[in-house]
Give the backbone structure.
Amino acid sequence: MRRFPNGCTTDKHQLYGPFMAKLSGCIFKIDEDDYTLLKRAKREELLLQGFSDPSDSDVVKRITSHEVARHCKRATRGTQQTEQLIRDLILSLDGEKGT
């Protein structure tokens, strides 16, 4: 993952950040049990802050990438799945979508 940006000509492109985030999602998967526990903890935190019955989408929106990195294990996907996801990502930004 860290070597991939070496092939990029610039990190100033407006799609560089979103592309790298999506690329990370293509390569790594988050442990579902850990993520479920994190959502439960975030829901409790929101309730303590005065939110009344936050929806699942409200909870997920308020979970930061730093919290996921700190509390959830990551693992790499299988080779075939990773290749397919990266291919799909590149195709999604091909042509006018990538400009």
User: Anything to note?
Assistant: The chain has a mean pLDDT of 88. Helices lie at 16-27, 32-48, 56-61, 65-71, 79-92. The longest strand covers residues 28-30. The two ends are 23 Å apart (CA to CA).
